[in-house]
Amino acid sequence: MLKIEANWLDLRYLDAISTQDTLIHRLNPCVKLITTLVFIIAVTSSSKYEITGLLPFFLFPAVLVALGNLPLSLILKRLLIIAPFIVFIGIFNPLIDHTPVINIGSLVISGGWISFVSLTIRLCLTVTTALILVATTGIDALCLALLKIGVPKIIVTQLLFMYRYIHVLVEEFVRCITAYSLRSFHGEGVQFRAWGSLLGQLLLRSIDRANRIYQAMLCRGFDGEVRLLRTRTLTGADIIYLIFWVTFFMVGRWFNLPQLLGNLLMGVYK
Amino acid sequence: MHMADALISPAVGGVMWAATAGLAAYAAKKVQSELDDRKVPLMGVLGAFVFAAQMINFSIPGTGSSGHLCGGLLLAILLGPQAAALTIASILTIQCLFFADGGLLALGANIFNMGFVACFIAYPLIYKPLTANSPSQGRIFFASLLAAVIGLQLGAFGVVLATLFSGISELPFSAFVLLMQPIHLAIGLVEGLITAVIVLFIMKESPEILQKTALGQPLGPIPVKNVFITLLIAAVLTSGALSWFASANPDGLEWSITNVTGAPELNVPAGIHSFFAEIQEKTAFLPGYNVKPPAEETAAASVGVNAVETEETAAWPAVDSGTSLAGLIGSVMTLALAYIIGKGLQRFAR
Questions:
Q1: Residue A261 lies in a domain
Q2: Are B330 and A265 inside 8 Å of each other by CB?
Q3: DSSP state of A191
């Protein structure tokens, strides 16, 4: 399958998932956005050598995946696609930072390895929650939330328009690239001589399309404003969700929960 | 070139967000004031166009590899810098949300490095002057190439700086620069070539599209000045935020600085050491690992060479196995709990 087609299918899939009707999907989009932002700040602000203290944060994606009825495979697949570049940058930490920090028997672990593991955990946490946010909210509701927190209307409108057009245009792109690759014997990429005419043609068609859509919108009374129908109210569930998670993130950020739990268990054992 | 949340610190991410939000608000105001609501669907469609075009592989002549379009410069040429800035910002937002390309915290930095640099620096300062009066084909070609290369070099340098200031990667500045800049020279050349051939094609087939943009978006002196003021504010904010973080959080930045320079301060009065040691105690995030705090290091160093040795030997191998074990057990339990709660809720949700 073409790369563009695969990516498009992922986009469609995520879009479909975001229209489910679960406990999480029904929550107020603003609340979900704010909770996710607090989560990301809590995770990224912890010390670069933090490992144990980050683990409780896995509860957040775990609960959301479960209650939001999300396919774990989709999220993990994305994580695997993103990971190599970050891991490539991170792997320099063990190579450069040799400060010994812990001995397990005769094995000495350097600070570099600890910061590398910490970085990988952060990567998993931040990537999954960002995907979960859109998979449980959907782009329309998310744009509404952006509007509510004060993003200029034209930016939100542009985001919504573009998202709609992606679905319109990608179909055409896929057809065009498929036709090209069927008629060429050069393997994957588009040859240099065809760069300009291929993309240029697509661009002209896209602009024509924009004009047609614009005319159609004028016929239906478009005046430069996009009116979003969905209005959400703040319910009790939203407030509980927000307070619970923000408290949890604060506690998880300031106390090392696994350490405390371990101490407790060791104490019981003794 | 997408930065991820895992590599960025909240201070740097926040500063970049502030700079990006400021520029976006300015661009939004500018676009809204000179709108032509014809432009709204055009921005949307061109955004979708670049978004889709980014996923097409272009084989690079003479090499076995392939590259793709980034699109910031192309959008600036077609739409004018302000509208292009908003469009590229929305492309990066969709990528961040749906493909997890770059995190939410890093989104500000990504929009700045990959979009705004091309729209507010490369286009007005390089492409525009070079193609100002009666652009010939050669001029457009040369200007696109140069603008794309410089834009991407600046963007890549922005990534290097943001990563460096975040202090999460250990990569030293010189190594990171040597890693990023040459790669982005190649990427910039491809970007410039693609942009040039598309612009030349459009000029041949449907020149009125380009003329409209060139006429409709005069480059006054104000926008450029605003950009530089914003950059200046961003720089001041960054350094301010960083110094604040450095002093409040001794085990992050300062430690790595000590590691890089290899020279901890030797003759600082003991009062400061105990003060920092106290802070270190309070903010010890990794009690189980016995992470060596910089304050102890400097304290030990100031006592004298012999004392350093004894201190070192005393401090280093003495990992308290009790706390380490507790940490380990607690971690396993925490993960197990998260898993069980997740599974339980899944059943409950059905």
A1: no
A2: yes
A3: P
Into how many domains does chain A fold?
1
Q: Is residue A268, in this structure, part of any structural domain at all?
A: no
Which CATH number is B255's domain given? 1.10.1760.20
Residue A265 forms part of a structural domain: no
A234 CA to centre of own chain: 24
DSSP secondary structure code for residue A190 in this structure: B
CA dist B24 and B86 (Å) reads 7
Q: How many domains does chain B have?
A: 1
Q: Which of B91, B330, B341 sits opposite A63 (nearest CB)?
A: B341
CA distance A7 to A81: 11
Half-sphere exposure of A65 (CA within 13 A, CB side): 22
- Evaluate whether residue A19 is within a structural domain: yes
Nearest CA of chain A to the CA of B180: how many Å?
11
Q: Which domain holds residue B188?
A: 5-279+319-349
CB A110 within 8 A of CB A91: no
Whether residue B97 lies within 8 A of chain A, CB to CB, comes out as yes
Q: What is the DSSP string of A199-245?
A: HHHHHHHHHHHHHHHHHHHHHTT--S-----------HHHHHHHHHH
Which pLDDT tens digit goes with each residue over B161-210? Answer: 998 888 888 888 888 888 888 888 888 888 898 899 888 888 888 777 77
List CB contacts of B339: < 8 A, sequence separation 6 or more.
A62
d(CA B99, CA A52) in angstroms, rounded, equals: 28
Q: Which of A134, A197, A223 faces B98 most closely, judged by CB atoms?
A: A134
How far does B270 lie from chain A, in Å, by closest CA? 24
Residues of A in contact with B22 (CB under 8 A): none
B198·A41 Cβ contact <8 A: no
| Window from A65-74, A151-160, A186-195, B197-206 with minimum mean pLDDT | A186-195
Query: Tens digit of pLDDT for each residue in B284-310?
Result: 443 433 444 444 444 444 444 444 344
**What ipTM describes this predicted complex?**
0.87
Residues B346 and A14: their CA atoms lie apart, in Å, by: 19
**pTM for the full model?**
0.77
Using CB atoms, which residue from B90, B197, B327 is nearest to A196? B197
What range does the domain containing A31 cover? 1-223+233-254
Is position B287 within any domain?
no
Alpha-carbon gap: B269 to the closest alpha carbon of chain A (Å): 26
